[in-house]
Specification:
The complex is a heterodimer of chains A (128) and B (213). With 128 residues, chain A is mainly α. Chain A is built from five helices and no strands. Chain A folds into two domains: 78 residues, no CATH class; 46 residues. The longest helix of chain A is centred in the last third of the chain and has 31 residues. Chain B is 80% helix and 0% strand. Chain B is built from seven helices and no strands. Classes of the chains: A mainly alpha (128), B mainly alpha (213). Chains A and B meet through helix 1, helix 2, helix 3 and helix 4 of A and helix 2, helix 4 and helix 7 of B.
Chain lengths: 128, 213
């Protein structure tokens, strides 16, 4: 009986935590949506315009994309600096590390392979 | 005395959120543990996508004499897809808020909108794929197109799974009411849906905007 009451009590506490932790607010979601639309619009503009120095466009697009991912993480996925969120932040940091290693490592290795590869025509020439 | 001072300082630092000191609070609430586990899954999914992103970035120039990105991509089409996905994320968040506040009508309305927007996105993507295949730019045309179809197609498959999952969560809310375990599953679904948005942002930038410019 007492056990049950305590269980119900902890359940209620968990409920309260739940509502404080994850619900966010309509204002936060709307802010997130506004930022996301703004950054998406900026990305389309940057990719289409002729006003910018052309080789700089990919870098600009990358910055805008990373900013938008940050907006999504904070406003939609509720990643924050709260103490109950430290595990999520650490896991995110590890995920970013792995993603960076996979993407930049592949690009680096393949670029080196490409520039060091002997073309098939040159191999035929050597065998002759 | 010291511990008390430390704990008041902690609650001052972290605000009203951490009313109790960490040491006194006991095990974390189930919702936090579930969200953490699901977050780990999402990160592993993102890492899987990163391998496909890397292969696309390596192969994007290998068109084998076939069409390149700037000949194929229609940015108006892609813009509509992006707006659909962003608004579906927003309505998904609103639906979660509505169910937290026990407003089931608002929940059904927002999740219906989420479903319609997600289905519109999927329909647009399927029409893009079929038109590419009809123009002879199918996945077997070049390494670039193989990488394009596997990267964008995998995201599309995720959206499709998300839509089916959405129907199941709505059915659960209808059958069981907004109980704790149903709301935890809704939370996991919303995390999944928002993570798909993050992947789409990377995809839009790398594949469509950089490919078309």
């Amino acid at each position: 009986m007492q056990e049950k009451a305590r269980h119900r009590g902890s359940q209620n506490a968990a409920d309260r935590d739940d509502e404080n932790t994850h619900s966010g607010s309509i204002a936060a979601y709307t802010t997130g949506l506004g930022f996301a639309l703004l950054l998406t619009g900026a990305s389309f503009l940057v990719s289409q315009t002729h006003l910018l120095w052309h080789p700089g466009v990919p870098a600009g697009l990358a910055v805008l994309a990373i900013a938008q991912m940050g907006v999504h993480l904070v406003f939609f996925l509720h990643i924050s600096t709260r103490p109950d969120n430290t595990n999520n932040v650490l896991a995110l940091a590890f995920g970013i590390l792995i993603v960076t290693l996979v993407v930049s490592g592949s690009l680096w290795i393949m670029a080196h392979l490409n520039s060091n590869m002997v073309s098939p025509a040159a191999i035929m020439e050597m065998q002759r | 005395m010291n511990a008390e001072a430390a704990s008041t300082e902690l609650s001052e630092v972290t605000g009203a959120a951490a009313r109790r000191a960490l040491a006194e609070s006991g095990p974390a609430p189930v919702a936090i543990v579930v969200a953490y586990g699901f977050w780990i899954f999402l990160l592993s999914d993102i890492i899987m996508f990163s391998a496909l992103f890397a292969s696309y970035a390596v192969l994007s120039g290998q068109t084998a004499g076939g069409p390149a990105g700037r000949d194929l991509f229609n940015l108006h089409h892609v813009g509509v897809e992006t707006v659909c996905l962003l608004f579906s994320s927003y309505t998904c968040g609103l639906g979660l808020l509505a169910v937290e506040r026990r407003r089931l009508d608002g929940f059904y309305l927002s999740f219906a909108l989420t479903f319609v927007l997600g289905a519109t996105f999927l329909g647009l993507e399927i029409s893009e794929f079929t038109s590419l295949v009809a123009r002879g730019a199918g996945p077997s045309r070049s390494a670039f197109l193989s990488a394009f179809f596997s990267l964008v197609g995998l995201h599309g498959v995720h959206v499709c799974i998300g839509l089916i999952w959405l129907l199941f969560t709505v059915a659960q809310v209808a059958a069981r009411g907004p109980r704790d375990f149903v709301r935890r599953r809704l939370l996991c679904f919303s995390l999944f849906w928002h993570a798909l948005d993050i992947i789409w942002v990377g995809l839009l930038t790398l594949v469509y905007l950089m490919g078309a410019s």
